[in-house]
Design brief:
- By secondary structure, the protein is of the alpha+beta class.
- It has one domain.
- The protein is built from two helices and two strands.
- It has a two-stranded antiparallel ribbon.
Amino acid sequence: MTTIHKKIVVDEKGDPQEVIIPWEEFRQLEEALGLDLDTEEVAQLREADADMRSGNREAFVSLDDL
């Protein structure tokens, strides 16, 4: 499990407004959530997901062929 080292910024009332996390932890979260992918990569992943759900095994390459 990932530990997030955070600083919480509050307003005058003490209500949380923002969170500050170390840059490297942000990058790891961004990558884990796929937020670093461009539109072409997202489209390819959606296509692969559709192929998998429809049972189109011909769309994939076996690990032995890589």
